[in-house]
């Protein structure tokens, strides 16, 4: 008898619901589909320079409590309506969290926060939340980490991100080439912008790779390429949101044949991993916009109902509306920052009008 050589370290294997089964259980509604289409179209116009508004991807570092997420969404939708003339506000709804070594990996992976890894329940909770937020009229953005996840929820996503740890990954570039929404690639964790530029160029090309069909079968996926990709500056060993950094990036991008435009992540290394410094970053970026810079077409903000972060598994119940991953700014601060950014866009329009006259 041959010696067993397969799955020697696999302790458990459970059947996963298929994308088709999940979509049949929670089909996209007409209201949600209109929100998704509207969000995607608006972001595409901004990327092409046909709309002078600024994209603002704003929301919790990660979703762990869907009720708190819905409370946040209601507030953000009201602010979206208020700032509609200047900002395309998209709610950050992250279900997957990359981990350097270990820790909670997000709502899809462990929805009950107890190490039960009920992924089928996590996929259901994620899709249900996306439906509810879109039905409010609020587009959503998320990070795609596991390349199987888009088949389950991507029809409800208006914008997607590829994180700093996976921007250089071939399989994520291939996945992005087939996504139906615009995609932002972050620069590397050490600040390397070239890998993000290369990712944008790669994702614009057609690809063929192994993937998952809607029926849950292994499939050969062929894509046509995604022309709506861009770079996100998130800092590295230092910050890269200042005017000189934007100049350097846009010069390199144009030389390499992609649009000289950028989204700025106010969190992560750009804030020195101090969430309370995000308003400082946004004020600097807003100043550049107010002075007439059209290359900055978007920002990202980590924001929640309550400021800061808390540890999962600590003593006592979790604080409602506070992150269990990276720290965030609170809702009041978020409103102030986005209203100021909205004013910056108006100032840029005024500067252009004065210049034209």
From TrEMBL:
Name any one Pfam family assigned in the record.
DAHP_synth_1
Q: Which InterPro entries match?
A: Aldolase_TIM, DAHP1/KDSA, DAHP_synth_1
Cite a GO CC annotation. cytoplasm
User: Alphabetically, which GO biological process terms does the record hold?
Assistant: amino acid biosynthetic process; aromatic amino acid family biosynthetic process; chorismate biosynthetic process
What keywords tag this UniProt record? Amino-acid biosynthesis, Aromatic amino acid biosynthesis, Transferase
Per its UniProt entry, which superkingdom is the organism in?
Bacteria
Q: What is its EC number?
A: 2.5.1.54
Main function? Stereospecific condensation of phosphoenolpyruvate (PEP) and D-erythrose-4-phosphate (E4P) giving rise to 3-deoxy-D-arabino-heptulosonate-7-phosphate (DAHP).
**Which PANTHER family does its entry note?**
PHOSPHO-2-DEHYDRO-3-DEOXYHEPTONATE ALDOLASE DAHP SYNTHETASE, PHOSPHO-2-DEHYDRO-3-DEOXYHEPTONATE ALDOLASE, TYROSINE-INHIBITED
- Protein name listed in UniProt: Phospho-2-dehydro-3-deoxyheptonate aldolase
Question: What organism does the record attribute this protein to?
Answer: Pelagimonas phthalicica
């Amino acid at each position: 008898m041959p010696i067993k050589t397969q799955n020697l370290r696999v302790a458990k294997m459970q059947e996963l619901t298929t994308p088709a089964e999940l979509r049949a259980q929670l089909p996209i509604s007409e209201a949600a589909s209109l929100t998704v289409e509207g969000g995607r179209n608006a972001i595409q116009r901004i990327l092409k320079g046909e709309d002078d508004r600024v994209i603002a991807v704003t929301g919790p570092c990660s979703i762990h409590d869907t009720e708190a997420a819905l409370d946040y969404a209601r507030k953000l939708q009201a602010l979206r309506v208020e700032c509609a003339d200047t900002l395309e506000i998209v709610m950050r709804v992250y279900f997957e969290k990359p981990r350097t070594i270990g820790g909670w990996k997000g709502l899809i992976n462990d929805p009950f926060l107890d190490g039960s890894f009920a992924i089928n329940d996590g996929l259901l909770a994620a899709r249900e939340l996306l439906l509810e937020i879109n039905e409010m009229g609020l587009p959503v953005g998320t990070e795609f980490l596991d390349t199987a996840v888009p088949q389950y929820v991507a029809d409800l996503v208006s914008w997607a991100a590829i994180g700093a740890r996976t921007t250089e990954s071939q399989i994520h570039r291939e996945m992005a080439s087939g996504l139906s929404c615009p995609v932002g690639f972050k620069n590397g964790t050490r600040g390397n912008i070239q890998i993000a530029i290369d990712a944008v160029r790669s994702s614009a090309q057609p690809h063929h790779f192994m993937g998952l069909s809607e029926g849950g079968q292994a499939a050969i996926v062929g894509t046509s390429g995604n022309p709506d990709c861009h770079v996100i500056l998130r800092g590295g060993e230092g910050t890269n949101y200042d005017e000189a950094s934007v100049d350097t990036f846009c010069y390199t991008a144009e030389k390499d044949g992609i649009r000289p435009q950028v989204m700025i992540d106010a969190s992560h290394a750009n804030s020195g991993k101090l969430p309370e410094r995000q308003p400082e970053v946004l004020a600097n970026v807003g100043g550049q916009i107010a002075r007439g810079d059209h290359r900055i077409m978007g920002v990202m903000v980590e924001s929640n109902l309550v400021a800061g972060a808390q540890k999962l598994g600590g003593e006592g119940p979790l604080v409602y509306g506070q992150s269990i991953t990276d720290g965030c700014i609170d809702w009041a601060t978020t409103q102030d920052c986005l209203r100021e950014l909205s004013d910056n866009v108006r100032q840029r329009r005024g500067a252009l009008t004065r210049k034209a006259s």
